[in-house]
Every structure is written in structure tokens, then in C-alpha cells.
Amino acid sequence: MSFNSLGLSPALLKAINKKGYDQPSPIQEKAIPVILEGKDVLASAQTGTGKTAGFTLPMLQILAQGQHLRHRPVRALVLTPTRELAAQVYANVVEYGEFIDLRAAVIFGGVNQKPQVRQLRQGVDILVATPGRLLDLINQNVLSLSKIEILVLDEADRMLDMGFLRDIERILKMLPPRRQNLLFSATFSKDIKKLANGILHHPVQVKATPENTTVEIINQKVYRVSKAKKTSLIINLIIEDNWKQVLVFTRTKHGANKLCKKMIAAGISAAAIHGNKSQGARTKALSGFKNNSIRILVATDIAARGLDIPLLPHVVNFELPNISEDYIHRIGRTGRAGASGEAISLVCGEEITYLSDIEKLLGMKISSEILEGFEPDPNEPTTPKKQQQRSRKPKNSNFHRSRNNSRTKPNNKRRSDNRRN
Q1: CA-to-CA dists, residue 297 to 49, 101, 230, angstroms
Q2: Model confidence pLDDT, tens digit, residues 200-211
Q3: CATH for 218-369, among 3.40.50.300, 3.20.20.70, 2.60.40.640, 3.30.465.10?
Q4: pTM beyond 0.90
Q5: I want to staple 85 with a disulfide (CB 3.0 to 4.6 A). Which of 80, 244, 271, 296 is the partner?
Q6: Domain boundaries, the chain
Q7: What is the pLDDT of residues 164-181, one digit of tens each?
């Protein structure tokens, strides 16, 4: 099947041809005709399958065919969980809409709001936004959502993971009841299905691939290693195998900064990208990584869904994620658009449980190796740190109270961090 058979306009086909695409991906082939019919869609597509164009192209066509209002109120809203993903979606809207008279804007936190406000006041048809900044500007009476015709929730599962449910619920109350709703998610948890039931009206369910599967052409490998030797091992792999472009995932922001410094000390150009970095620093790091002036990009899971890097050859899990689904999103940064890719995980003793959970989710065993000089430590614990801490006996009567307090504080902090987006 070609794009010509999907019912897209000549202006969109011209833009698609300019980008060098001739055949739609499975998600595009299934979603575009249904969206063009005006139906609500619940779509499951793993990362790197072309889902952004799957909703961007028909959205542009529907809006272009609709009534153009003089003041250009926002008619389509695309909500995303991260700044990087918002920027990526906006870039797609601009590229595919090059030959269509529609205006688009992107808004997110971490940057000065004045240019965003100025652009909104000039009139915008399509708005790509993260929930926090969107609500901030609505509260300032900068924009209204009363004319929305199309709502897109992109990476809905990640938005729920990041604690945006209340923000989404607040935004939904501001939208007109008659609208087209498109929900895209890599996974379908109970919370996602509940959210979909509350938003979508007789949706058409679209699946490009089985839920929670990884791209088949990605070569997955595990290196068993002691925790203390992980940094030496990854530096050795980068230098010995002459890797030129590597995306490395750590579990924490502190871990990302620490690993980045050690790589730079070893003569490897590297940059870290995570939620504590300013938007300017994140943009600079990503730009340097894309143009190969930076060899290694060290990231936390905040970036797992929002990075669009063509032909990325290597992804390394310096630390395995404690949520199995995040493994899929991480390694999905490679093996995109039909290209091959390699995903390597460095696994120490306390991550064996995480590895087992990931393999259960994938329904397969990942091939495992031990490199000479980087052997695992037989004396390391084989359970995650949190489980080790839970198994310890309380030292005093205040144990339960202090544990409950420590449990609530990180959640509050995480919530405030997310609002900055």
C-alpha cells in the first residue's frame, strides 16, 4: 500500500514525498483512514513505528477542510508527557503541514513563556503541549480550549506514569463535549483503559503490533557484571568497539550526571539529559548528539519516549528499569524506521529480578555473556535495593512512622517535578 491510497490530500502527499517516504507503516495504514472518517481511535503502537504521522497527517487534513475562523482559535490539542516529545510532534506537524494554511505552536515548561504567549495571541490552529504549561497559560487567560475539534493524547501511559492524571482530568473539563478523540499508548494498563472509557466514544481500536513487544530487528544482549565494574565495562565497550553514537539509560538523575563525568574523564564526549536540566541544556545536548559532536547521551526515563534520533545504532541500559515496560520504551529508541539496532544491558546481582520480569514481559530469554575482567561479583545481593531494605528489621518504634513519611515525600517531589513540564 502507498500513501496515495489512504485518502490524503495532494498537499499532504507532496509533504510526505518531500520527506522521502513512499509507503506507510502499519500503524499509519490502519489509523489514518479511520481518523479521516472522524471516528475516535484507541491505538496501540510501540515506539518507533511512525505513530506521530499516524495522527498528524489526518489531523491536518481534517482541520484544513474545516471552517477557518478569523481569529484562529486552537482547534486541535495534542498532549504529550515530555518537552522532547512535544518538540518532536510539533516538528512533524510543521513538516507535514508545509503546504497547508494552518498554524501550529508548541508550549512546555522550563523555558520563558513570553515567546509562547506571543505566538498564541497571533492565532494558532494546532497546539502541542505538556499538561503543566498548558494549565499555567489557561489560568493566565492566555488561551481557551472551547473551540477544540480534535484531542490527541500521545504516550498516554507515560502521562499516567508521571502523575498527570489530575491535570488531564482538569483539561478534559475545559473541552467542548463534541470533539474527535485519539488516544495513543504503547501499553494498555487498567488505568489506560479506564481513561479511554471516560474519553472515547465508540472508539475503533487499532493495533500495529502485539502489546508490549519489541521491534524484532533489535539485537538484544545482556552482560552480567559486578556493580562496581559497570562504568569500566561501558567505557571499554565504547572504546574497543568504536561506538560513535550511543544512548545510555540510568535510573536516576544523579547517576546520569556521575556517569557522564566519568566518560568525559575517559576522553569520551558525553552529555546528560534529564528533568533537572534546563530546557536550553537539554536542547543543546540532544542537538550535539544528533549532529555527532557528542558521542554519548546519558538519559533518564524522562527521555525514553521523546527522543527522535534517526538510525541510532546503540542503546545501553547502564541500569535496568524497575518497571519492565520502560525497557521496551528505552530500547525502542534504536531499530527505528526499518533500521537495525543493538540494545545492551549491564546487569549486576541486584538487577536479576528486574531482568527476569523483563524476560517474562517479552516472552523470551535475552542472550547473556560475561566478559573477561568484568565478571559479576558472587557476593553481591540478588534482590533489588528496595526489597533488601524492606526485609530489614525495624530498629525502633518509630520505624513505621518514618517509613510512611519517606514514602510520601518522593511522590510529592515527583509531582512537582512533573508540573514543570
Answers
A1: 22, 37, 17
A2: 999 999 987 555
A3: 3.40.50.300
A4: no
A5: 80
A6: 3-207, 218-369
A7: 999 999 999 999 999 999
